[in-house]
Amino acid sequence: MWIVTAIALSCLLASPTLAGIKDIGSHFTEPKPNPRGFVQDDTVNANTVPLEFHKDNTVTSDLVFDGFEDEDYIDFDKILAVGNDDYVEGDEIDDIATPAPDIDIFAEPSDPKTRRARLLRLFHGRSRLQRLNTVNAHFGFNLYRSLRNDVNQTDNILLAPAGISIAMGMMSLGAGSGTHDQIYKALGFAEFVNASNHYDNTTVHKLFRKLTHRLFRRNFGYTLRSVNDVYVKKDVSVKDSFRAETKAFYFAEPQSVDFSDPAFINKANRRIQKLTKGLIKEPLNAVDPQMVLMLLNYLYFKGTWEQKFPKEMTHYRNFRVNEKTNVRVPMMTNKGNYLAAADHELDCDVLQLPYTGNISMLIALPRKITGMRTLEQEISPTVVDKWLKNMTNRTREIVLPRFKLEQNYDLIENMKEMGLTDIFQESGDFTGMTSDKVAMNWLKHQGIITVNEEGTEAAALTQMGFMPLSSQIRFTVDHPFLFLIYEHRTDCLVFMGRVVNPSQN
C-alpha cells in the first residue's frame, strides 16, 4: 500500500536583483556511494538555528536518491543522542482557572478565555510535537472541508495535511511581520505558540524539524519520507538568514535555477519522480518561466498491513456510490482481531487497520449512505481522539474495497477562504526571504494512494456518544467512507481523504 504527495508553493518576481545562491549543478549531480548521515556543527548559534549540517551531508537539496536503495535511507536514530529530545514528555503549559467544558476543543466560543482553556485541556499530557500535530490536524480538517465544497459529491478526495503544513511552515520563514502573523493565525500556529510561555515562533520550526526525526525513519517497519526543495530564479538574492534556516529546520537549501530552461524542468521532474518512486510524474511542466521562487514538499509512504488480506479472498462486489448508483469493485476480505468503535452522535462506525509500525488507517463509515456530509462537517482532532480512546478489540470480518486515488488541486482559493490572503497579493511581505517584491501565484497539491491486499503505498462529542463496537462482528465498507492515516507516536495526521467511488482514480 503506498501514498505519495507533492506540494508546491511559488512566487512571481516584481523586481530582480543580483544574488549569490548555491548553483543548481550540485543539486542534480550523481551521489557519492557513501551511506548518508548527519554531522553536527557546533559553530551554529543555538539561539537562531538549532543545528546545521556539513554541506556534503545535508538531507534534501544536496541529495539525489539515484543509486541508493531503501536500506540506505537515513536512520534518524543516529542524529540525536538518546534523551536529547522531548518524545513523550511535554513541558508545562500555562494554567487557566476557567474550567474547560467537555465539548469540541476547536469550537468558537464568545469567551476567548474559555476557548484557551479548552485548548490547554486538549494539550494536557501531550508532548510538544503531539500538540503541534493536533493543530496541524485541525488545519487539515478545515482545508478538507473547504476543498469538499469545491468538488462534486461523487468525487474522491486525497490530502496530505502534514506535507501542506510543513511547506507552509517553511514559507513562513521568509514572511515579514504582518504576513507571518496571518500565516500563523490561519494554520493555527499562533494558538499553539500562545499555549505556553515556553514557546515562541521558532518553536514551530524546531518541531517541524523534530517531526522529520520522529517520523521519517526506516526502523519502524514502514517507509515514510518527506523531502523539501527550494528553487530560486537566477540573479535574485535570497537573504542569508532564510537560506540558513530552511536548511537547518527543513533540510532544504535554495538552489539557483532558470525556470524557463527545459533542462531544469526535466531534471527537477526526474528528481521528483525518483523521490516519489515514480508515482508523481512531470508535475512541473506548467511552471511559469517568470517564477522567482518555488518551494516543494514531497511526501512518500509505504506501509504493510499487520494482517494482510488474502488475495484469494478478494471478489467483485457491489459498492453503493449513492442511493441510485452501484459499482462493481474488488472487495478485499479478512478475519482477525481489529479495534473498532461506534459513534452514535455522528451515526458512524470506525475501524482501525494497523500497518507494521505504530501507524494505522482509520476508516470512518457513516451508517446511512447520506451521512457523509455530517461526518465531514463534524470531524476534528477531538472527535478522532475520542474514537481512539473508545475502541474495543475483538475478532471481526473486514470487507474493504481495493482502490487507487490520484488527485491534483490548486489550493489558492481554499487558502484565501481560510484567511490566507496577503501571500497572494502585492501587499504580501516576504522581506524575510528576499528584498525583491514578490507574491505567491502557485500553490499545487498532488497526491496518489493505492490500497490493496498487501497494504498501502503513496508518493465534540461527550463520552456518552461513543460506545464500544462490541456487538459488531462484521465490518463491511460498501458505501462512501472517510480514511485517515495517523502516526500514533506523534499524533500526526499524515494523509486523509474520502472514497465515494473506488472504481474511479
UniProtKB/TrEMBL annotation:
Residues 141-502 form the Serpin domain. GO terms for cellular component: extracellular space. GO terms for biological process: blood coagulation. GO terms for molecular function: serine-type endopeptidase inhibitor activity. SMART domains: SERPIN (SM00093). The keyword Signal applies. Residues 1-19 form the signal peptide. InterPro entries: HCII_serpin_dom, Serpin_CS, Serpin_dom, Serpin_fam, Serpin_sf, Serpin_sf_1, Serpin_sf_2. It holds the Pfam family Serpin. Keywords: Signal. The keyword Signal applies. Belongs to the serpin family. This is Serpin domain-containing protein. It comes from Gouania willdenowi. The lineage of its organism: Eukaryota, Metazoa, Chordata, Craniata, Vertebrata.
